[in-house]
């Protein structure tokens, strides 16, 4: 059978997680928390399942969850989306990203991907007949080179995927980035698909600026979020999309035939759980402690790094230590040091190897300390 995605195989996340498990290594590769969710949230799921909230909910999501999410957006981002016409609950941010692309990308359209990039953007473009156009982020700090984006615009440019806080680098967009993007698409029919799954994980007092918080960008943007990432329940696969009414209408046409709707008791549980804002306002502090612990340990190793500003990932450079390919080092670290990570070349369309590795620090303190201890033996592999 002719493949529609001939270049896609098993993702590196699956490969490294399997290797980590086969080798009995500490798995700092795939991006999922190594700790449980708040028991209050889990109890709410029990409560709503037992109460019989187990049949199909409304296609766009239960109104209570859409309302409280709109209120959260007002509190954290300063604008109030219309829960009826602008908010849709979906099966994970992955669905939101795909449905948004399906809603706007037509055959032959060009869509920008700023790389290194999360792996679900490209298939969402390709399967909808579009052509990904890759624009590299700055190697030094993964900020956007706006001139390069501007230079890549053609008459066929239809959309741009953006991601802040950024996976894998942790770069957090500034107000100036938002203004640059607004400037770039002004007067053009270019839509923005904004992946904001790490919206609540920022450090050192930096604040996540949703593209929805920018009045002009809001008119052209699908804001895609993930309750799974925010509340340490990635396996629930529940997220959302906020977009203006006309865009939401098109988005829902796709959502309706992708999944139709999203798991009912989790929606009720999240609606009640979100009533207390401290439950999401405390997340930056929670993760800051982990990031600080992780980077303080990393500074005892030979890796070079810039502290991550957001997300639960930390990048490290090893080019000054070895000529080894990043993939080889990641595999050897898993087998010989028993610590798994992700080689960052996989986030580039041409698999460009800048000798950078990505660690996920969303793990229990003891596990992070043990991993850091093992990483001190890095020279054993590099020698
Ligand atoms: C940048 C980014 N976007 C989207 C997702 C997927 O989110 P969800 O599990 O809600 O589909 C991930 C998960 O790793 C991610 O890192």
UniProtKB/TrEMBL annotation:
Keyword annotations of the record: Aminotransferase, Pyridoxal phosphate, Transferase
Q: Which GO terms describe its molecular function?
A: transaminase activity
Q: Which cofactor does it need?
A: pyridoxal 5'-phosphate
Q: Which InterPro entries match?
A: Aminotransferase_I/II_large, Kynurenine-oxoglutarate_AT, PyrdxlP-dep_Trfase, PyrdxlP-dep_Trfase_major, PyrdxlP-dep_Trfase_small
Ranges for the Aminotransferase class I/classII large domain?
A: 26-375
Q: Which Gene3D superfamilies match?
A: Aspartate Aminotransferase, domain 1 (3.90.1150.10), Type I PLP-dependent aspartate aminotransferase-like (Major domain) (3.40.640.10)
This chain belongs to the protein called: Pyridoxal phosphate-dependent aminotransferase
């Amino acid at each position: 059978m002719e493949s529609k995605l001939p270049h896609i195989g098993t993702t590196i996340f699956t490969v490294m997680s399997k290797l980590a498990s086969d080798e009995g290594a500490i798995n700092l590769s795939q991006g999922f928390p190594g700790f449980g969710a708040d028991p209050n949230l889990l109890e709410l799921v029990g409560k709503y399942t037992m109460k019989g909230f187990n049949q199909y909910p409304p296609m766009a999501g239960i109104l209570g969850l859409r309302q409280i999410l709109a209120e959260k957006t007002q509190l954290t981002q300063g604008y109030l989306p219309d829960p009826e016409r602008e908010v849709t609950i979906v099966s994970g941010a992955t669905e939101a990203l795909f449905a948004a692309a399906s809603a706007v990308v037509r055959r032959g359209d060009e869509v920008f991907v700023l790389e290194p990039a999360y792996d679900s953007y490209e298939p969402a473009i390709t399967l909808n007949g579009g052509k990904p156009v890759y624009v590299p982020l700055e190697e030094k700090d993964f900020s956007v080179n706006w001139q390069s984006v501007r230079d890549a615009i053609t008459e066929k440019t239809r959309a741009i995927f953006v991601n802040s806080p950024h996976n894998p680098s942790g770069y957090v967009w500034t107000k100036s980035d938002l203004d640059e993007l607004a400037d770039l698409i002004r007067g053009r029919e270019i839509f923005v698909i904004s992946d904001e799954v790490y919206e609540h994980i920022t450090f050192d007092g930096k604040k996540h600026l949703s593209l929805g918080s920018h009045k002009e960008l809001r008119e052209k943007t699908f804001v895609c979020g993930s309750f799974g990432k925010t509340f340490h329940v990635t396996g629930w696969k529940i997220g959302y999309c906020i977009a203006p009414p006309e865009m939401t209408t098109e988005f829902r046409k796709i959502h309706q035939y992708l999944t139709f709707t999203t798991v009912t008791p989790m929606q009720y549980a999240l609606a009640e759980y979100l009533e207390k804002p401290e439950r999401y306002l405390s997340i930056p502090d929670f993760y800051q402690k982990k990031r600080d612990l992780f980077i303080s340990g990393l500074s005892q190793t030979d890796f070079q790094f810039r502290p991550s500003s957001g997300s639960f990932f930390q990048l490290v450079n090893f080019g000054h230590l070895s000529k080894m390919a990043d993939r080889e080092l990641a595999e050897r670290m898993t087998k010989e040091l028993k610590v798994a990570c992700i080689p960052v070349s996989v986030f580039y369309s041409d698999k460009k190897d800048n000798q950078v590795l990505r660690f996920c620090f969303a793990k229990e303190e003891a596990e992070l300390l043990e991993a850091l201890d093992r990483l001190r033996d890095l020279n054993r592999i590099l020698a």
